[in-house]
Amino acid sequence: MAARRAYTTHPLVLRRVTVRRVHDVTPRMRRVVLGGEQLGAFTRDGTAHPAFAAPGFDDHVKLILASDGDVRAALPAQLPHGIEWTPSETRLTRDYTPRRVDTAAGEFDLDLVTHGDGPAAAWARSARAGDELWFVGPKSSLRLPERPDWILLAGDETALPAIGRFLDERPVDAPAHILVTVADDSARQKLALRDGDTLEWVVAEPGDAAALEAAVRTLPLPEGDGYAWAAAESRALLPVRRYLRRECGLAKERLNITGYWHREETGAPAETQDAPAAGEHAHVPSPVPWLVTRAALRLGLVDAVADAPGVTPDALAARLGVPAPRVGVLLPLLAAHGVVVGDDGGLRLGPAGEELLDEHEREEYVGHEAELLLSLAELAPALRDGGSPWQRASGATLHDTVVRDAERYGELVEECEQLVFLLNGLTADPLWAGVESCLLTGPGSAAVVAALDDAGRRPRLRLAEDEVPAAVLRSHVPAPERIDWTAGPADVAVAAKALAHRTDEEAAALLTRLAAWAPTAVLVEASRPDGLSPHAAEAALHAYAATGSPLRDATAITALAEQTGWQVTRVVPLGWGTEATVLHRT
């Protein structure tokens, strides 16, 4: 089955705007009208950038703020076709939905909830006409189904800008059923309803998961093919996602649920919590809680408690088919870390356990990244004697493993989905002049196909992959029928994240194969950590665990290329630490 494109991508541009007007929509929400020349097409440092476009009702722009007030020092670097998030200790970013976009007037509105101590709320409370604001985006717009029979729009106050814009613009002609939780009645807004729409306001504390879930459950979903959209506090949405997917049977492509904010259980927001200063007591965290959580997920314990809140430990053990004393080994530590709460009288999920209901959250414990982490038990001998920790732990290279395992390769393909937002620099490169055919390889191939489509480029496509990866990619590529699924000659070959799971020897073998098929090749790889990632310091170690080599920078890729008869002609920076290296066969 062909994959439906869920998003349309946009060029990533850093823009400066100023505040034009400010007024309060409700006592809890302030509307800031922003405008400026950089909302139109403009030139910076000799590079032309397109006009601002945010056609989707839930598009997001990333506001750039600074903890010390010096925003200009915290700005990312603008590339010709993308953004590089250079390291910054003071940068704070927050995503917001444009409530209204008026291209003729050269302005757009942001509605910001003003409660709380977050940096964006503080900025909104003090915003005055003439104040400067920098932002990036949007990077993409959601593609809704063409003719849904109905649409559900649910969320808390932070979802109101997107819901209001949807109702104003009606990107699809279908009855809308709206549910909004608000802290008090003063947060209600006038919304543009039509005949057939329904609207329910529910008063609840921000982030109240039980209230949001209960309210969603009371909504009768109409017959037919519908679409559900929801946005609120990230943990509060987990039971909503579970209900709509499992109990209502909505397919993944008929559901879009996004955490707009995250409530910190420990008080201060994560970005303002200080690490121990030099000389203060610090310790290396124990891996035991991680291993116990992994065991709980693999046994099905988290899902079992979610399906039967209040289950006793003995009944839980019976559901899992594991002797009660053995389950009892896990429960104290799971309770200590908030995965479960309760006692012998009954267990339910704690805050950490609720987060583990999300598929992406649990990947840290049971997915490909978790398996890679476990291989680090072999890190010391790998560093001393050579080879990758993965190969030492499993007896096979990571490449040999994933090309025989559809589930593992599928995880690599899904990890590469974000790549489509970075490929404008590649699709705009002069190398495509006169190109009639393109050979693709690597788990990022589906993202390359989507980027070529967005750029209006239509070369004949071939895929050079083994049987299992080809089958996985077929289910992720839009319009797979227009791809030749056999390797062969082409004008250019694009290897998208194809080296990230290969050893140096395997990477050289791939480059040698590509030299037999194409005179020009492009390697799309991460060459340095993503500056926005909280795990940037771990990137080199992850790469080493997978391949036995640190992240391959331009020097390392050049050495591999020259070793296999290629010459590097240029390197195209794509942003987020990713580069496209263009090779010509010598």
- Ends distance: 40 Å
Give, in spatial order, the strands making up the sheet with the most strands.
9-6-12-2-3-11-10
Taking the sheet with the most strands, its summary is: 7 strands, antiparallel
Number of helices: 22
Mean pLDDT: 89
- Helix percent band: 25-40%
Number of DSSP strand runs: 27
Helix/strand-derived class? alpha/beta
Residue fraction in strands: 25-35%
Global shape:
globular
Radius of gyration: 25 Å
Task: Pick out the low-confidence regions.
Answer: 266-281
In a few lines, what is going on in this structure?
The protein is an alpha/beta fold.
Sequence-ordered SSE layout with sheet pairings:
Blueprint: E1 7-9, E2 14-26, E3 29-35, E4 42-44, E5 47-49, E6 61-66, H1 71-74, E7 77-79, E8 82-84, E9 91-96, E10 98-102, E11 107-113, H2 119-126, E12 132-136, E13 140-142, E14 150-155, H3 160-169, E15 176-182, E16 198-203, H4 209-218, E17 226-233, H5 238-247, E18 255-261, H6 288-299, H7 301-307, H8 313-320, H9 324-336, E19 340-343, E20 346-349, H10 351-355, H11 359-366, H12 368-374, H13 379-385, H14 389-394, H15 398-402, H16 406-415, H17 424-427, E21 437-441, H18 445-454, E22 460-463, H19 467-474, E23 483-484, E24 492-496, H20 504-515, E25 520-526, H21 539-547, H22 554-563, E26 566-575, E27 578-585
Parallel strand pairs: 14-15, 14-17, 15-16, 17-18, 21-22, 21-24, 22-23, 24-25
Antiparallel strand pairs: 1-13, 2-3, 2-12, 3-11, 4-5, 6-9, 6-12, 7-8, 10-11, 19-20, 25-27, 26-27
Helix pairs in contact: 4-5, 8-9, 11-12, 16-19
